[in-house]
Amino acid sequence: DNRSQLSSLPLQILLYVNGVYYIFYFLATLAMIIYKSQVFSYPDDLLAPDLTVLFLMAILEVPRSYLGFKGNLTEAEAPLGLSLGLTVGSVVLCVYLLLWQTYVLWADVLLNAVLLAAYGLESGLKVTAIAAFVS
Q: Which residues cross the membrane (predicted)?
């Protein structure tokens, strides 16, 4: 079989690194929300939406990562495309935590900027991989 391998090694590495970073991101953001709720006068009606966004993002991260890994390794555009779609949702939630959560600390800006950059790079590699699989 003379078939060339189309799956992307850079994408696979980035999916792995993003998975590890996301665990750190989630725990750090959760710790900061808890910290902010203790240190600042955090209105109760605003604590729930910030936590909801963080947990929704974590729930979204599981199929997003899984479909990315699966789509890349099996060279299938459908799971990779679904993962790309879920990434759009994750980006929206990340932007919420960057701009619209109740209190935004410099650490929030840093954590979210790194995550957005990683999502951007990953999305570019996914589009490139999908194009390779389709051609």
A: 13-35, 79-98
Q: Please, are residues 74 and 55 in contact by the beta-carbon 8 Å criterion?
A: no
Residue 8 identity (one-letter amino acid): S
Mean pLDDT by 10 residues, the chain (135 residues): 81 97 98 94 87 97 98 97 98 97 95 98 97 93
Give the 3-state secondary structure of the chain.
Answer: CCCCCCCCHHHHHHHHHHHHHHHHHHHHHHHHHHHHHHHCCCCHHHHHHHHHHHHHHHHHHHHHHHHHHHHHHCCCHHHHHHHHHHHHHHHHHHHHHHHHCCCCCHHHHHHHHHHHHHHHHHHHHHHHHHHHHHC
User: Which residues lie below 8 Å from residue 70, measured CB to CB, with a gap of 6+?
Assistant: 76, 79
Name the token pair of 51: 């936590």
Q: Which pTM value belongs to this model?
A: 0.93
Contact 68, 62 (CB under 8 A): no
